Amino acid sequence: MLTTLIKRIDANIRLEARRVESGKDRLGAGKAVLKSDQQGAFMEPLEIMLPGGIIRFGLQALAGPKAWRQKLWANVHNFNYGVMLRRLKPDSKTKGLVNLKLELEGSSPTLRSFLAHANGKFDRHRGQGTRTA
Q1: What value does the mean pLDDT take over residues 105-119?
Q2: How far is Cα of residue 117 from the mean position of the Cα atoms in its chain?
Q3: How confident is the model at residue 2 (pLDDT cuts 50, 70, 90)?
Q4: What share of the chain is helix, strand, coil (3-state, %, to 5)?
Q5: Angle at 66 between CA 44 and CA 5, to 5 degrees
Q6: 75 near 99, Cβ under 8 Å?
Q7: How far apart are CA 27 and CA 87, in angstroms?
């Protein structure tokens, strides 16, 4: 059913948030391009600019006669998770940076089964920081 629906949608959507704020804090900005046509669905890129870093994410799902050919990638550069955690718990002393690179691709009979059929790389590096409970 999802396959039929995606193949029937012909859309090109552009989203942009120029400034995201909470109180006096600037939390970031972002933009995304979403496309769908008879060949499949695409999201490239989704960009989220956060304090100290950026997250870029992309997804392609191409409909074949018997399977979906899918590709997923993400790059996270200097994501300061402490800033985001302090939005939930203002007295938190948690701080640090995360860098991540993810590349997955594969063919699967359904969109839901992509991860079971995917191959790829996952590289993670956490920068200097501390974590407190």
Answers
A1: 90
A2: 19
A3: low
A4: 15, 60, 25
A5: 55
A6: no
A7: 10
Residue positions counted in the chain: 133
- Residue showing tokens 């590349």: 103
The three-state (H, E, C) secondary structure of 52-75, written as one string = CEEEEEEEEEEECCCCEEEEEEEE
Burial of residue 1 (number of CB atoms within 10 Å: 0-12, 13-18, 19+): exposed
Cis peptide before 45, with omega less than 30 degrees from 0? Answer: yes
Tell me the C-alpha distance between 125 and 102, whole Å: 12
Residue owning tokens 């939930």: 88
Q: Do the strands 11-22 and 68-80 form a parallel or antiparallel pair, or are they unpaired?
A: unpaired
Q: What is the pTM of this model?
A: 0.73
The 8-class DSSP code of residue 110 comes to S
Per the structure block, which two tokens stand in for 118? 């995917």
Q: What would the pLDDT profile of 47-98 be if each residue is shown by its tens digit? A: 999 877 899 999 998 888 888 899 999 999 988 888 778 878 888 888 888 8
